[in-house]
Write a structure and sequence with these properties.
The protein has 7 helices and 4 strands, in the order ααααββαββαα. By secondary structure, the chain is mainly α. The strands form 2 sheets. Strands 1-2 form a two-stranded antiparallel ribbon. The protein has a two-stranded antiparallel ribbon with strand order 3-4. Helix 2 runs parallel beside helix 4, helix 4 runs antiparallel to helix 5 and helix 4 runs antiparallel to helix 7. The protein is globular, with a radius of gyration of 20 Å. The N and C termini lie far apart (about 65 Å).
């Protein structure tokens, strides 16, 4: 009988329920050939498959895509947990993870927009793919600026709000409800408005981060002079 790998005592317990489950699932992989990048690639492939299903349109394809996106969102926690408990973290791996997060999220919105075709709202019509693309580009800007804020201030600068073991990004777990209730069109319309507005807020936050990091540097320079 083989014993389970022991966890490093200095690794804190994850704050969210899905991350805790992810840690339990990846613990047996600590001393195997599997690396966090392998799990990141798996997350990417599942997410791309989900976005392509959403892009096909129709009730069945949309629901299949939503389930794949949910699975991809969960697998996204496994690479980080494996990196933390195995000591296999790297700057390249972290950047790869962020790039995959951005790509899957952008493809998610573009896929949903493509699947719904033309959107008619208040007597006006717009291509769904354009609305999805607008939301996707805004999300890409958000991911990029959050990465820059993290470079400036560390992970504490980009920490997400957490309530009852759930973070902001966990809203994607509700995506199957959107597809089951045939609410993809209002979801994309709302995202095409909300995502750009949130991107503006992140731009403001990024400018604040620049000022916060510039002030100590200026003070040090004056003291040295």
């Amino acid at each position: 009988m083989t014993s389970q790998p022991s966890l490093p005592k200095n690794v804190p317990l994850p704050r969210t329920w899905d991350a805790r489950l992810a840690r339990r699932l990846v613990t047996p992989l600590i001393h195997t050939f599997v690396t966090p990048n392998h799990l990141t690639t798996l997350r990417l492939l599942i997410g791309v498959a989900g976005a392509l299903c959403l892009g096909r349109g129709g009730f069945a394809w949309a629901n299949a895509g939503a389930l794949l996106i949910v699975l991809s969102n969960f697998v996204d926690h496994t690479d980080g947990e494996l990196a933390r408990i195995s000591g296999k973290s790297s700057k390249i791996g972290h950047f790869y993870d962020l790039a995959c997060d951005a790509l899957v999220t952008v493809m998610l919105f573009v896929g949903m927009g493509t699947g719904i075709g033309v959107v008619h709202v208040a007597g006006h019509s717009a291509p769904g793919v354009a609305l999805g693309g607008l939301a996707g580009v805004a999300v890409a800007i958000i991911f990029f600026l959050r990465m820059r804020i993290e470079d400036l201030e560390g992970k504490s600068g980009t920490k997400q709000a957490s309530v009852a073991g759930f973070e902001t990004e966990d809203v994607l777990y509700l995506l199957p409800l959107v597809t089951l209730l045939s609410g993809v069109t209002p979801f994309i319309v709302a995202a095409s408005i909300g995502a750009p507005l949130f991107a503006v807020w992140v731009v403001v936050d990024y400018r604040r981060a620049l000022r916060r990091t510039a002030t100590p540097a200026a003070t040090t320079s004056q003291m040295a002079g």
